[in-house]
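Retry 2 of 3 after timeout on previous attempt. Resubmitting structure tokens to design endpoint.
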């Protein structure tokens, strides 16, 4: 009997070793495939505050449809008409991940990103039309400021898929002149356009788009500043029959996305989203003017009174606006001066 035991192992049978290796490989491949399939399927919650029949609501749906057509692994759930997030809360909700994407009026986020007030300069010249605004928003120097401003919130801008068009003033009762705005309670559009109304003597009431009808109906406000689209599609003529035919502000709708959600998409999914945004911008641009012409005709039909500003009123407004424009530059130093210079170039003013 040997004094010591040997530690030598018996060689494994080749057939058993092969079966074990094959089993491990198959299990690993199954796990990898299951993980990849799980990671590839993504749902994007897309919020906005427009009625579904509104052109802006149709644009949002167009984007959702294009994303799903271009990527078989992305599902887009659209939440219209503030059904998930109110318009004025869109930036915060996107940053927190309550929604993954939001189409938001620039004036609603200027409280948190004040440099973006360049998009809310009140009573812009007629030369600053929607085409000029789109070019301004797409300028690389402007885009850099937008990205920097929103990046602080962990939010990415995907593009500008819509314009507000002309934002009009709609009243319960006629006004005699600009001076007659003094003491009126107005639901504002946000940003520096609210400062313009205050300069005219009005007091600003903050409320969501969905609350405008009831506020006008009950006399909580004397008038509203809103888009032609909202006025027509929300039946506001029945409670605000007076149209003051002057463009208070023209502002883009920024399509924003939660930064973490964007990073979680794979390269193909990101490419599909970017392509869908580009196609949506083209579609929106091609159809927007015809939509605006139709809306303006509808306003003229629905409003009982349509008032033009007199030459004296316009001159008075120009004087009231000068400190607001200069105040923007003074408040934002070099960035403000650069953005104002670019804005004037695209607006065609000296």
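Retry 2 succeeded. Sequence:
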């Amino acid at each position: 009997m040997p004094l010591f035991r040997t530690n030598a192992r018996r060689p494994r049978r080749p057939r058993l070793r092969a079966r074990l290796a094959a089993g491990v490989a198959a299990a690993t491949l199954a796990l990898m495939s299951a993980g990849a399939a799980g990671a590839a399927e993504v749902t994007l919650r897309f919020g906005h505050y427009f009625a579904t029949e509104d052109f802006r609501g149709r644009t949002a749906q167009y984007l959702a449809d294009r994303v799903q057509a271009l990527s078989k692994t992305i599902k887009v759930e659209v939440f219209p008409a503030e059904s998930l997030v109110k318009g004025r809360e869109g930036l915060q909700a996107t940053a927190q991940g309550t929604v993954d994407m939001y189409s938001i009026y620039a004036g609603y986020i200027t409280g948190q990103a004040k440099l973006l007030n360049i998009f809310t300069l009140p009573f812009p010249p007629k030369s600053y039309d929607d085409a000029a605004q789109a070019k301004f928003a797409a300028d690389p120097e402007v885009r850099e400021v937008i990205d920097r401003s929103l990046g602080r919130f962990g939010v990415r801008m995907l593009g500008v898929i819509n314009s507000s068009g002309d934002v009009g003033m709609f009243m319960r009762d006629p006004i005699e002149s600009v001076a007659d705005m003094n003491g009126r309670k107005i639901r504002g559009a946000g940003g520096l356009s609210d400062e313009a109304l205050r300069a005219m003597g009005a007091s600003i009431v903050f409320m969501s788009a969905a609350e405008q009808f009831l506020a006008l109906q009950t006399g909580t406000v004397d008038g509203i500043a809103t888009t032609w689209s909202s006025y027509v599609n929300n039946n506001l003529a029945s409670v605000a029959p007076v149209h003051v035919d002057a463009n208070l502000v023209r502002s883009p709708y920024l399509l924003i996305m939660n930064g973490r959600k964007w990073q979680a998409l794979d390269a193909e999914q990101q490419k599909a989203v970017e392509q869908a945004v580009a196609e949506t911008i083209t579609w929106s641009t091609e159809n927007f003017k015809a939509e605006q012409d139709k809306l303006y005709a509808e306003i003229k039909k629905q409003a009982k009174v349509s008032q033009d500003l007199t030459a004296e009123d316009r001159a008075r407004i120009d004087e009231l606006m000068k400190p607001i424009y200069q105040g923007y530059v003074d408040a934002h130093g070099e960035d403000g001066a650069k953005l104002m210079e670019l804005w004037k170039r695209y607006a065609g003013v000296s």
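Attempt log closed. The longest strand covers residues 155-163.
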